[in-house]
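The freezer alarm interrupted the setup, so I double-checked each line after restarting. Inputs confirmed:
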Amino acid sequence: MAMQLRCNVLEMIGVGKAGHWGGSSSLAEAMAVLYFHAMKVDKSNPKNPERDRLLLSKGHAALIQYAALCEVGYFPRAELLKVKSLGGLLQGHPDLSVPGIEAVTGSLGQGLSLGVGMALALRLDKKPSRVYVIMGDGEQSEGQLWEAAMAASNFKVDNLTAFLDWNKIQATGRTEDVFKISDLDKKWSAFGWEVITVDGHDVEKIIAAIDHAKTVKGKPTLVILDTIKGKCVSFAEDTPAYHNGTFDDAKYAQAMKELVAQKEMI
Amino acid sequence: MEKKSLRMAYGEALVEEGKTNNDIVVLEADLGKSTMSCLFKDVYPERHFEMGIAEQNMASTAAGLALAGKIPFYSTFAVFAVGRAYDQIRCGIAIPKANVRICGSSCGLSDFGDGKTHQSIEEANIMCTIPGMTVLNPIDAVETRKMVKAMVKHQGPVYIRINRNDLPVFTPTEGEFEIGKMYRIVEGSDVVIFATGAMVWKSVDAAALLKAEGISAEVINVSSLKPLKKSEILKYTAGKKAIVTVDESTKIGGLGSAIASLIIGEVNLPFEQIGIDDHFGESAHSYDELLVKYGLTEKEIANAVRKALGK
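Predicted 3D structure, all chains:
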């Protein structure tokens, strides 16, 4: 499924248009695990009150979430190709108009707070549903995110699991060059969170981390996904230019060929 | 005239509404004892969240609560409620049309002692520019109570601003508050004064001064700063010889310009705008001292009326 999601993302970006390939591709395995294994998802009703919620705080990676929501069956494939077009369903960043999207994100640093609010509401309603929030590593410099980290810990929010897509590249370069934030795992631990670091492209490890998070009581859990930005397209892997890059005809053809080959190998 | 606390009315209204509506939740940022939302905590501790001094997180958390079906009220000083959390309001609350209720307490110049950092003379204007936002500015404790009830029922985000000081009560206890409606406080025939918040009280006093001179001034309470309905404005400009607007915010994007922009080219009457010029406030020992310094008094309103009428 993760490879299928990557193919969808590449199709959405197409030729000659800028698109967030890098930070979408790094999340393919996590997104596949969440929507097709870990989360309670109602294929016939995206608003089912018993569902789990997924918020993409790094909203610029919306393409990978759209890819998954389309595979769930919330909208036809034709919409994928109309992404970001005037009058189209799929906005440049997550919007409530899209079935399966839970909140408006894209202005970085806000998703975890939104998730804390949802988790508190579910707890008040005594619902067993869980909230999942995916953050970026460049996003870790947003101050509000640490306000939310303290709040989640203060309120002992244990029905929320956050992910940190640790792909080591942000919009204008490598995170360690742009704005170095050391010891992310220790920082989150110090803020009162259970912290697990896993290979973000290893499906089994992601599943195990999510299962573990469900057993942690009295505090929230952070899963740091050690990922490669642009994963599965050789020339775009670990390359800042593909944070929001453009594929020409030849690059697009090569990328799709590589993705299809890897998909068939599975 | 008897003065009452709008802050107390706000806190009591939250408690009262919370009795019959379990979805109401209250968030605050270490200022609940000033905004009086702390009253809710005493009665419904499980639905009350002290968020610490972190307004951005408070705004987005409220959005999350609303998106999951709750009716959150978050309260702090107006400068922080809006200024500190503008982008959180814009993206997390206004774009998804979330049912968050934002309370900006100690609005305008009403926090006289704390000075320019805490006096909020532009936040209502900013909130009016956000698409789909409703902006309410009560004149007294009774109207505050009625507004909270209307806010609970409303679909979409609402911002209410609350004066720190006790104000005279003009609103009758009977009847419900209707968002977008203007309320006539004094009937008159020569000139219409559109005022909002504490400036309604000053305008009522101005109307009394003018009456002694034989000028009949009508005073309209514009407590819904948004939606601001043209039909409501035209109802009260009809038959008048001049228009005066009075608010306690910066004139740039304030009540005067909002009304003018709706009727320009259609109502050709002399028009005077009273508000705050392009500057911040300052500390003073009383609210009145500041109102006098910035020309927000019955005397200045009466002068504006005379000028508009060519007298």
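Quick read of the result. Residues 2-265 of chain A form a domain with the Rossmann fold fold (CATH 3.40.50.970).
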